[in-house]
Amino acid sequence: MNNIKLAERYAKSLLDVATTRNIVDVIYKDVQYLKLLHSKSTDFRLLMSSPIVKPIKKNKIIEAIVQKEVNSLTSDFLKLLVAKTREMYWYDICLSFDKLYNKVKGINAVHITSAVDLSDDSKRYIEKKLNEAGIKNIAMVHTVNKDLIGGLVIEYNDRLLNLSVQRELFELKRTMSQC
Fold this sequence. Notes:
The chain has 179 residues and is an alpha+beta fold. The protein has helices at residues 3-20, 24-40, 42-49, 55-66, 72-83, 90-105, 120-132, 165-178, and strands at 108-114, 138-144, 151-156, 159-164. The chain contains 8 helices and 4 strands; from the N terminus they run ααααααβαβββα. A 4-stranded mixed sheet has the order 2-1-3-4. α1 (3-20) crosses α2, α1 (3-20) packs across α6 (90-105) and α4 (55-66) packs antiparallel against α5.
C-alpha cells in the first residue's frame, strides 16, 4: 500500500473517532505534540522506525513518554499502530491528520519560504494579498532558506508559487544552455 494512502486512511480514522467523541481539537493538539516530539527526539524517531524493538517494549516506552502529554485516544492510537506494525508511518499520519483537520475547519495552510526572515509587516502584506486572491482563514508557517538567494516560495492548497531568485537563475541557465 502506498504510504500516503495508508497515512490518509489512518489519519481519517483518528479524525472520525475524535469527531465522534467531540475531541477533535484535543487530538489536533496531541498531533502537534507528536510532531514536535519528532523534530526534537531522534531516539523516539529511531524507536518508532526500528523493527528490532519488540512491540511490547515499544508500547511501554511510548506509554512512558506520551501518557501524561496526550489524550488516551492518541496513546491508544499509537499502540494500535504498533500492533498493526504501522508505527514507522506515524509522522506521515500526523501530517495527513493536519491536512484533514485544516480541511474540516476551513483553514488554508500557507507555507512561505524566504531567503531572509520576514518582518511582521511583510507577513501581513502577504496575508492581505492572499486574502485578495480568495484565500481566507490562513494559517501561515514561515521558514528561512538562504539557498533561495532572494524572493519567496509560497505553498498553499497543493499549489506552489516560486518567486525565488534561485528559480530565476535556474531558468536563465536552462535558457542559456539551449542556445
